[in-house]
Write a structure and sequence with these properties.
single chain, alpha/beta, eight-stranded parallel barrel, 16 strands
Length: about 325
């Protein structure tokens, strides 16, 4: 039937929202969109409740949790760099038991907001014990292992810097975990494909990358380090091109889903990571200069997809054109 001449043309903005799908899925987890707030930049989630509509996000990762509370490093712990930030917080946290008692009950009140718990330790037993504590909690969607920590039983080398140590801690965590296991890889390695495959073969359900790059800054006037820990983790837009390359390499090396992290601050950044093969992304440092960054990016991503007539965001995953 021919449309009435007075009927206005259907614009992108007026398109039926039911025909537009922003959802993504990986390792049994379904998110309403691919935007996840990264660990260490979004507190325990409850701190952002008054300024961010948390339910609007695909999900968020609570700051790293250990078996026992940790005070973190002494200040100064942060330093702004060109297009980035150095941080050496020292994984300060209230501990897994306190998280279950004080934070998780509040998070359960948030409807449709997947909670991923980041977990770390200084030996495989620490990871195991922390996960066993968290297994008792209701409302956690998955665990993300921070493997950039020093393995104190093997000379202090980071778990994520050695494929054998990485495989060991992933296998132990997988054995005790009742939830999907995401392994957050360090970029401070010779070969990301080797580490990604080691995590996959040891039982990881997904991997996320990258964590921060090791860096430092010195005050020329005092000749002292800007950070009390001397070295710190570099994050922010400055690392995005390297992080994007590493995500692309990881995607080609494994069959499990990959979550992209590193310098994401615009909708176009998200699209790049999806085209490189990431199934979802995490927003980190942007949350420091704009606490509403994650929510803003959800809106900007939807607008980008509408303007470019993308009906299913999953159609973009791995869609980079090489020739």
């Amino acid at each position: 039937m021919k449309a009435d001449a007075t009927t206005p043309p259907k614009t992108i903005e007026s398109r039926d929202p039911l025909m537009f799908d922003m959802s993504v899925s990986f390792c049994g987890i379904k998110l309403k969109n691919p935007v996840i707030a990264a660990s260490g930049t979004f507190g325990y989630g409850v701190e952002f409740e008054d300024i961010v509509t948390i339910e609007k996000l695909g999900g968020f990762v609570a700051k790293g949790l250990s078996k026992e509370p940790m005070p973190g490093n002494p200040p100064p712990r942060l330093w702004e760099t060109a297009a980035g930030m150095l941080n050496a917080i020292g994984l300060q946290n209230i501990g897994a038991k306190a998280f279950l008692e004080e934070k998780l009950p509040l998070l359960r009140k948030l409807k449709d907001a997947p909670v991923i718990c980041n977990v770390f330790g200084n030996c495989t037993e620490d990871y195991q014990d922390t996960i066993l504590i968290l297994n008792a909690g209701e409302g956690i969607t998955a665990y993300e292992l921070n493997v950039s920590c020093p393995n104190t039983k093997h000379g202090g080398i980071a778990f994520g810097s050695d494929p054998y140590s990485l495989a060991e801690v992933v296998a132990v965590a997988k054995k005790v975990s009742r939830l999907p296991l995401i392994v957050k890889l360090s970029p401070n390695v010779t070969s990301i494909p080797v580490m990604a495959k080691a995590a996959q073969d040891a039982g990881a359900d997904a991997i996320s990358l990258v964590n921060t790059f090791v860096g430092m800054a010195i005050d020329p006037e005092t000749r002292k380090p800007r950070i009390s820990n001397i070295t710190a983790g570099l994050s922010g837009p400055a690392i995005k091109p390297i992080a994007l390359r590493m995500v692309y390499e990881a995607v080609k090396s494994v069959k499990i889903p990959v979550i992209g992290i590193g310098g994401i601050s615009t909708a176009e950044d998200i699209i790049e990571f999806l085209l490189a093969g990431a199934s979802a992304i995490e927003v980190g440092t942007a949350n420091f200069w704009d606490p509403c960054a994650s929510e803003r990016l959800v809106d900007q991503l939807e607008k980008w997809c509408l303007e470019h007539r993308v009906q299913k965001i999953t159609d973009l995953i791995g869609g980079m054109i090489l020739s």
